[in-house]
Structure formats: structure tokens, C-alpha cells
Amino acid sequence: MSKYTELQTRKILSAYGGVGSIIETPEGALMIKPFDHWQYFALINKGRIEIEENERIEDIRLFERLKHYFPNLEQLVKVPANYSKLYGSSSPRLDNHIINAKYFPIWMYCNNCGRLKPLDEWYKKWKDVHQGGNINKINEAFHPPKCYACYQKAKKEKKGKKFHSLEQIRFILTAPNGAIKDLPWNLWTNLSRPNKEERKSDEENSASGIVFNGECCGKQDLRYIKSDKYADFSSVMIQCKNTACPTNGKRVTLAGLYSIRLPDYEKNGSPKLVKDKDNNIILDDKGKPQKVYFKPVIRTSNSVYYPLITNSLYLPNKALKRKTKEKIKTLYESADFSVEEIQQTLRNKDEIEISLGEIEEVLNPKSSDFISEIEY
Fold first, then answer.
1. Other C-beta atoms within 10 Å of 298: how many?
2. Which of 32, 106, 209, 277 is most deeply buried (CB count within 10 A of its CB)?
3. How confident is the model at residue 96 (pLDDT cuts 50, 70, 90)?
């Protein structure tokens, strides 16, 4: 259900946007995926996209520095410009020269009927309603995401507006370790709010003013209800409309939303712990390890995204081009040339002047310790 959206490069990669950042677009809020999930770079690695020389970044110092963080890094390539064929077009100028993003938050509601679901459920229901149609046209009509129920009702009654675009929930969860995720809205109708005494006696829930007790029923039919009666979170409520639900349609407000503190977990199920830059566990006032907790924030808040930026001064006369390094390695491995023979071959065939020391460095690179940003 992907669709192309034109974005300026400065929004994709800058001090305010980059991998993991949330970009507000006419199509909705999108999160930029990690570089290794971009189709552009995947096709480069498979040899299906030929990179022009002006698209490569021939900065050996920067390459070696970044390889400290990304051991599998093979080359540096400029971010694709992401141009559309025509202004406002829904297709790119170059099909594969694009970056990849995903909708985030994935929980969305319809402003018309109030239904609340994660994106994949909305899309599944949309396909069910249009069953038997052309899948490309179905996908095209779904973007930006739309309510299947309102469309179905309007088509059946043959009146009223057919398409109602979905709204993404404004709130998300972030943690100090950089983790980010949606709030568990499917658990909201079955939450409890323990008093201070109960929270003091329960260490696991002591950090939160809200406790989630699982889903309210097996066939949830959630609604996101807004009211003008109050100015705070009490004016927003979540309700399950399933007639067989034990909650009996009880409306649960968002009061106390900002008091939520949810622990983050490792893959093995153990809580993640707060650590310093040397990977040492930080203890609290009682001498116990501090856990990493998620807390709610508004998705457009400036506190959501802080990029790590590396600056590099490029000195082209001090670095060998990638192609030259590959030729040196090929000559050495395939013909077992000596360093002197490699130097002579490059001079005669390619008119490349290179010292014996530079060739030695390519064949036997010196390992160096990671230096500070200022030294770099």
C-alpha cells in the first residue's frame, strides 16, 4: 500500500530530519526508515542501479569514521534527490531513486464515525470492501488512508460524502534510549488508575499513574470520541462498541495520559536498564538499577528527535578514489603483482601517479583507534 510523495532533501536529511524522524506531509505523518531499508541502497548493493561518479562521496576519512558505527558500510552515496516527474505528480522522476518511509503513528481514527484502528486493519477492511477490484486502483484510492465504513455506508445509501480521510493519533511514546512506539490504544478501555498507596506497594506500577490490564475483549470495535465539554484530556474518550464486551460500552477518558511510564524490554523479556557512555549501569538513590521508561509526548514536539550529526572536511588531494583502491586490490589478488609493478601499471595504463606507501596502505591498512570529534 505504498505511495510516492515528493519531499525536499533538507527535510529528509538535516538537523531537523533524518532516519527515524517524523515528517508531516499532506499524506500524513511519515517516519523515515533506516538507510538499509531504503530500496535505493538495496538496489545499489544488488548492482541494479549504476551510481554516477558525482553521486559517490569519495571521502576516505569520513568513510572510515562512519565504519566505526556501521561495520557493514561498503561505500558512501549521496541521498537521492527524490524529484517527481512533474510538479505535484504522484510518481518519481527516477523510479528507484527514492527513500523509504512508513506511516507513524500507525493508530488512526475517522473524524466522521470515530472508529479507531491501527493502519494495517484499516487497509485490510478497505481491501475487503473493494474485493475483486484492481489492486493498484484500490491502493491508489486508499491514500491518504480513508475510512472503509463511511465509504461503504455512503455507497449503499447513494448519498453524502464517500471519502473520509483518517486522522493519526497525536500522541506517541518515546524513551531516553531513542526507542519510539505507539501508545497501546487497544488496552485503553481496560485500564485502571491505582491510588498513591497502591502504587507505593507495587514497584512495577509505581512509575505510572495508569496500569494496562490487557484488551477489554476478543473482538474490539474501538471509537475515538471528542467532546467540547472540557478543555483537557477529559474531553477525549476511548470506547469499545462491541455489544458482547464486558465494559458495556464504558467510555474511558485520556485523563492522566502524561503520567504513563511504560518500561522498555530487551528481546529476552528483561527490562532495559539506563547506562552511561561506558555501558555501565546507572543506579538510583536506593542503589537499584534504573530502568528505561517510555513516556507520552506529542508527535510534533521538538523533543521527539535529536539527530547525531558528523561533520567532515574533505581533502581530495589526500585520499585515493574508491576505483583506484579497487584496481590496486584486483592487481594484487589476480596477478600477484608486487607493489612496484602495481605502481608502474597504474602509471602506464591509467595515468595515475601514486606512491608506494599509498599502495601499501591500501593492501595493508593500519588499524587506528577512534578519535574525538575535535581531533577528527
1. 11
2. 32
3. confident
Q: What average pLDDT does range 314-320 have in this prediction?
A: 64
DSSP for 248-273 reads: TT-EEE-TTGGG--EE-B-TTSPBPB
Q: What is the mean predicted confidence (pLDDT) over 164-172?
A: 95
Contacts of 304 (CB under 8 A, 6+ apart): 22, 172, 174, 180, 297
Q: How far from the centroid of its chain's Cα atoms is residue 137's Cα?
A: 27
pLDDT in tens, 112-131: 999 999 999 999 999 999 98
Residue 335: HSE in the Cβ half-sphere, 13 Å Cα cutoff: 11
Is residue 30 within 8 Å of residue 22, measured between CB atoms?
Answer: yes
pTM equals: 0.79
Copy the grid coordinates of residue 258.
502524561
For residue 312, pLDDT over 90 is answered with no
3-state class of 264 per DSSP? coil
Tell me, what's the pLDDT at 114?
96
Cα dihedral 319, 324, 47, 49, rounded to 10, equals: 60
Q: Is 365 exposed, middle or buried (0-12, 13-18, 19+ CB in 10 A)?
A: exposed
Does the structure show a pLDDT above 70 at 167? yes
Percent of the chain having pLDDT more than 70? 92
Sign of CA dihedral 216, 212, 299, 228: positive
Q: Check: CB of residue 261 under 8 Å from CB of residue 183.
A: no
HSE-CB at 189 with a 13 A cutoff on CA atoms is 25
Terminal CA-to-CA distance of the chain, rounded, Å? 44
Question: In whole angstroms, what is the distance from residue 238 CA to residue 254 CA?
Answer: 8
Q: What is the DSSP letter of 94?
A: S
| DSSP conformational letter for 99 | -
How far is C-alpha 25 from the geometric centre of its chain's CA atoms? 15
DSSP 46-112: TT-SPPPGGGB---HHHHHHHHHH-TT----BPPP---BSSTT-SSBSSTTS---EEESS-EEEETT
Confidence band for 240, pLDDT divided at 50, 70 and 90: very high
- For residues 223 and 238, the answer to whether their CB atoms sit within 8 Å is yes
The DSSP H or E segment spanning 128 is helix 119-129
Which class for 115: exposed (0-12), middle (13-18), buried (19 or more C-beta within 10 A)? buried
